[in-house]
Amino acid sequence: MIDRQQVLRYRMHAQQLDRQRGDLADTAVLDLGAQDTGPDGALWALAIRGVTELANDKALVDGEVTNGGAADHREALVWFWTLRGAPHCYRRADAGQVAAAVAPWSEADAARRIFDASKPLKDAQIPVLDALDAVAEQMRAIVKEPMVKGELSTRLHEVMPDPYQRYCRSCEAVHLYEMPFRLSAVQAGLELVPDTSPPVLEPIPGFATADSYEDRLDPVRAYLRLCGPATVKQVAEYVDAPAREVKAHWPEDAVEVEVAVGEATETRWMLADDVDGLQGAEASGTRLLGPYDLFLQARDRSTLVQDPEQAKALWPVLGRPGAVLVDGEIAGLWRPRKSGKQFTVSVEPWRSLDGAGRKAVEAEAERLAVFRGIALTSVAFAD
Fold this sequence. Notes:
This protein is of the alpha+beta class. Helices cover 39% and strands 20% of the residues. The chain has 19 helices and 15 strands. Strands 11-12-13-14-15 form a five-stranded mixed beta sheet. It has a three-stranded antiparallel beta sheet with strand order 1-3-2. The chain has a three-stranded antiparallel beta sheet with strand order 4-8-7.
């Protein structure tokens, strides 16, 4: 029987949140993709996992702000809209394989992933997979240099038939459904230029979707390795695919484990090679997780946070805070507060933090400030 603490310690270690230093090649979250939502997104996720080879290497490690690194990390990393249509960061060397790994497995899977955009296509007798290919083909033809999303949307509106489009009340215009737009972009070899708002897309020279991909990039295997043990339903929710499709792609080397869930037990799965690591899981350290860090993206939220009110505070509908992670347990919330040159990190502990615990949080807040390139004014603990 595996208890909750073992699960959380396993994940902290598997996701390398207890690591001091590492490089992009062996940073595990890049196999599944580091979600890049908000200012403390993908690069912060890499920073707290000890990645020191990016542009602000010294800024992240030694407390010195360095400049001119954007080109450096763009040579090593690539950003795509992938799982759930969210922007994710990957190793650039994996780009073609990533496109293959995140593509829908079937017509039913594709229809599920694009939500309401599937109905007009079905009504027009256009297979969803064919539709996604058609959008990708037009994107490749249109985007020859960096292009703002809005301009690409306008150009696609001019060439795509009605079943691909809808009236958007917020834009007061007719344009492509959002999910086909996003999911087709990666297949077209269009990368997102990081830190652009509105988003800018540009073509990857010589890009081609790979015919196959390494096991480590398989999203089902990667989820089980990094967020396991998990059920088929939990993996399906993360990938945003039908459970029967996920089950059809279930790894042959996945094995059952029994996990204590409250007073009950639940049968979950993980890769056979990881079971020993789960049994003896140990992890220590303090980290300020970004709001969309992979640790917080696991679909068994009641395992991460048992108290319903605390869960509601951590995952509100709008305006998610970050989480304070201490030795595998979520020990509170944090939010950045910036006003002019003042930068404060507000912390709401969920349990008493002793002097050493507060100093560890303060050290991580200082690390965040350096990452952002601003001096830390204070760390405000809510008592």
